[in-house]
Structures are given as structure tokens and as C-alpha cells.
Amino acid sequence: MGNELVPVSINGTGRATTTFTPHVDVVECSDEIVLFADLPGVTTDNLDIRVHNGELAVAATIDARHHAGDWLMHEYEVGAFYRTFQLSDEIDASSISAELKNGELRIRLPKVERAKPIKINVNSG
Questions:
Q1: Where are the domains of the chain?
Q2: What's the predicted TM-score (pTM) here?
Q3: What would the CATH number be for the domain defined by 22-64+76-113?
Q4: Tens digit of pLDDT for each residue in 15-50?
Q5: Rounded to 5 degrees, what angle do the CA atoms 112, 117, 121 make?
């Protein structure tokens, strides 16, 4: 039951649309934060990533596969998703980059210089 899609609206064609929330992993490194999301079936043409007012928004639509015959199992999620992430002041929003490869989205969120750790050398007296 937890993986069921829930109709959320009627689109311009009169058909119910569905929505889901893809899982993400977020990793913090010394100079950046990296967000990973598995998005099978998403292409760069139906993926939208934006930064506005300190918020990172990721949206896409995954279309259903169409095959002749009766489905015996259908586990891949389809429909639209929209996720937002609040960005801290430590992120350099103008340098964010994204790559979609083999169904994996990787968004790199570089830290501003002042947020990066600085090694302090200690001199012997």
C-alpha cells in the first residue's frame, strides 16, 4: 500500500495525473553537498531544476511504458514529482550543476569559500 500512486489532479486532457516522491541521498563533503536521486525513465527534456529564493526545486514527469499484453507486475513509479530543498547560506547557488546519467541525477551544490574548512598551521615557538 505504501507504494501506491495517488491521483492528485486532472490535467488539460481530462485524465487524472499522479504524483510521487523519489528518494534522494544527500552527501556532505568539505567543499560541496551532493544530492543523488534515482530517476529511471527521466530524460533531460522532462526534467526541470531551478533555484529561487534560497530553495532548490526539482521536478519531472515519468511517462508510463506502453507494451502489448497484460502487465503481470508494474513497480516503476510514473507520473509527476516535485521536490524542494531549502539551501543554506553556505551554498553558492550560482555554481550549482546537475548531471543525469543512466537514470541517476546528481546535483552538485558547491559551498561558498567562507563555508569551506580552513587548515590552520601551528608554528612551534
A1: 22-64+76-113
A2: 0.74
A3: 2.60.40.790
A4: 445 667 888 999 999 899 999 999 888 999 999 999
A5: 135
